[in-house]
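Readers of this paper often ask what the protein records in our data store actually look like. Below, we set out a record of this kind in full and without editing:
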Amino acid sequence: MFRPGAIVLALLLAGCHTQAPEEVIDRGSYQADVSRTALGMDQRIRFVVLHYTAENDADSLRILTQEAVSAHYLIPSRPDVKRGKPVALQLVPESRRAWHAGASFWQGRTNLNDTSLGIEIVNAGPRDDDWAPFSDAQIDLVIALLKDVTARYNIPPQNVLGHMDVAPGRKKDPGPAFPWRRLAQAGVGAWPDEAAVQRYQAGRPDDMPVNIARLQQKLARYGYNIGVNGVNDDASRAAIAAFQMHFRPADYRGNADAGSEAIIDALLEKYGGRE
């Protein structure tokens, strides 16, 4: 005859046994033993790449759900609110590769579709001599999404990027109207400390020319695909312009100047770079 305490103990033991993870999983035509885990593995997702769609909501959704191009998330021009929270459209599971970055480079890695999450934001992009603004509702949702994914995948601030950063010259999105500083102030993405920028600038005018090879070397250390040849050719100018569009959107002509050098010096001091 079981005592009440023995019955309770038996039930608890049975419950613990049924909750133990399976060590052999039946997959139909074969079984997989998952009882041991290799140490030699790494996180697939290392970067986030932000884009504007250059289309309206309906066309953005149509294009991004066809076969040619895709993104993990789409931020509508006016995000819906459900249960008091804004809604991002997830079009591709995070575990799958989306086709958003194309030919791309950052910190020595190429083909960033393999290692990134893509976020498309409905925005018209360039218009005449100006750029379409992003709404507060969009940016608030982008910030919420970035806080989530950067925490889950341990993505450092300097790996939250624009398409123009990873494909300079070929792409300009999300463009100079995108508020990178606001993101950094909310805790996502990189931004230099103003005091450090002023210290490195040392009173030099923003547009004062600097040694091109030296600036190229610093941008390459931070992550940009830029050759260190001492010539501000088309490829070099495109990379410098992409950097300026991100961190100094008031002037992104691609000139090698003291303002840009002070910013990259402050960023390397704060976040480091490739050796």
In short: The chain is about 35% helix and 15% strand. The CA atoms of residues 181 and 191 lie 6 Å apart.
